[in-house]
Amino acid sequence: MVLLQPDPFLNELTSMFEHNAEKGSVWVTLKHSSMKSKVKRNKMTSAGKEIEFKCLVRATDGKKTISTIVGMKDHQRFQASYATILKAQMTALKKRERKEKRKAADANKNGKVSKKQSTAH
Q: The whole model's pTM is what?
């Protein structure tokens, strides 16, 4: 796993999406993390120190895994950039075939009328 700064992570994520646009998947996970071990967190809380939590973002295409840590200050800017990348890559998605439309099409082929169609009349 490669730990990157937020901007290079977004660039690498974009190239990962483009590489897998025709065939393949990209998984992105976000995790609430303090980046400290449980022992260190317990010591800090007992000492009265405040623990700063960050967002750990990981992305993988099955072959390559990248990650970044986003703090509270950079979170809104990162989310805006991340949303822009996701919107740009949504064009590769396939339209989902709705069950009702598919059932109606099958019923028309068989000459049957579904319950919803018969009650609507």
A: 0.68
Looking up tokens 């840590």 gives 69
Closest CA to 24 of 101, 107, 93, 99: 93
What Å distances lie between residue 27 and 38, 60, 86, CA to CA?
A: 27, 5, 12
pLDDT top residue among 104 and 84: 84
46-55 in b/e form (b: 16+ CB < 10 A) is eeeeeeeebb
Question: 111 burial class (0-12, 13-18, 19+ CB within 10 angstroms)?
Answer: exposed
Grouping H, G, I as helix, E, B as strand and the rest as coil, residue 70 is strand
Pairing of strands 65-70, 54-60: antiparallel
